């Protein structure tokens, strides 16, 4: 019985490599190997964001058929910069940055949350800071030059008796704003109403709200234009997720109210604050 001739090792390896290369050349294989990146504006700590968005991640992973990762950025300005550089497949950020990404980088709005987004200006209860005028010459805290609550708060100061002689100091999170205000190291601070409600009850009781903003476009889901073919699938998957028990728990836990559609006209009202983000980015070294 004759033996089958063995291929030289070099020939065998070359053939195997050719097969592997042909597999990678199949359309979609290389793309599927990379995770679908959801970038979420840093409205709280990275740990909390990653934990909070796990139900959304799981729902979208099934929809896009590839691994999905949740990422954020050190601050709102860096987030906007990375989003404009096309770092995210799906971006979730407040209305003013959503308008920026739509108009300047081609992102497609998908959905937003039903719950109103409002900014508040808080002071320590019983402090002498009881109105905008009393803040003249003091230090007021914001979250970041590009955050919606900070930009709205700064505009409120300018619109109220043309107050411009306030030093704005930036900190990383709403709980830090509250602690510094209560310690007396700042007269007031800007934060979202939702984050005010998330503070410990004893901290909330020690704060007074000077003013509350009108409702504004809150966190908006935007799809990168390079993933535009996935828009109907992602839109429908999110709505389906919202109807599940896990989705309802997610909305209830985070006081989000569910998903709703968002129009181009609604986002267009945020253009003045989007322009402020452009100004901040241009000034960034």
Automatic annotation (TrEMBL):
Gene3D superfamilies: Periplasmic binding protein-like II (3.40.190.10). It comes from the Bacteria. This is Phosphate/phosphite/phosphonate ABC transporter substrate-binding protein. It comes from Azospirillum griseum. Pfam families: Phosphonate-bd. PANTHER family: ALIPHATIC SULFONATES-BINDING PROTEIN-RELATED, SOLUTE-BINDING PROTEIN FAMILY 3_N-TERMINAL DOMAIN-CONTAINING PROTEIN.
């Amino acid at each position: 019985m004759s033996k089958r001739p063995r291929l030289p090792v070099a020939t065998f390896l070359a053939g195997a490599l050719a097969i592997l290369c042909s597999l990678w050349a199949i359309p979609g294989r290389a793309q599927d190997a990379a995770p679908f990146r959801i970038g979420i504006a840093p409205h709280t700590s990275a740990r909390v964001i990653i934990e909070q968005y796990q139900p959304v991640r799981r729902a979208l992973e099934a929809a896009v058929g590839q691994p999905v990762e949740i990422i954020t950025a050190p601050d709102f300005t860096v987030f906007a910069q990375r989003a404009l550089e096309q770092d995210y497949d799906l971006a979730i950020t407040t209305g003013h940055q959503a308008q920026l990404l739509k108009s300047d980088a081609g992102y497609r709005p998908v959905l937003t949350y039903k719950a109103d987004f409002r900014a508040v200006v808080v002071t320590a209860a019983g402090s002498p800071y009881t109105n905008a005028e009393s803040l003249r010459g003091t230090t007021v805290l914001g979250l970041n030059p590009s955050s919606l609550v900070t930009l709205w708060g700064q505009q409120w100061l300018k619109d109220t008796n043309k107050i411009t002689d306030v030093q704005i100091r930036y900190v990383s999170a709403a709980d830090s704003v509250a602690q510094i205000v209560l310690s007396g190291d700042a007269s007031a601070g800007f934060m979202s109403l939702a984050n005010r409600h998330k503070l410990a009850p004893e901290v909330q009781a020690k704060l007074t709200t000077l003013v509350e903003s009108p409702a504004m476009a809150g966190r908006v889901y935007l799809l990168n234009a390079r993933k535009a073919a996935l828009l109907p699938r992602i839109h429908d998957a999110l709505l389906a997720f919202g109807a599940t028990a896990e989705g309802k728990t997610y909305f209830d836990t985070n006081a989000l109210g569910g998903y709703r559609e968002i129009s181009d006209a609604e986002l267009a009202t945020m253009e003045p604050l989007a322009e402020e983000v452009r100004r901040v980015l241009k000034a960034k070294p």
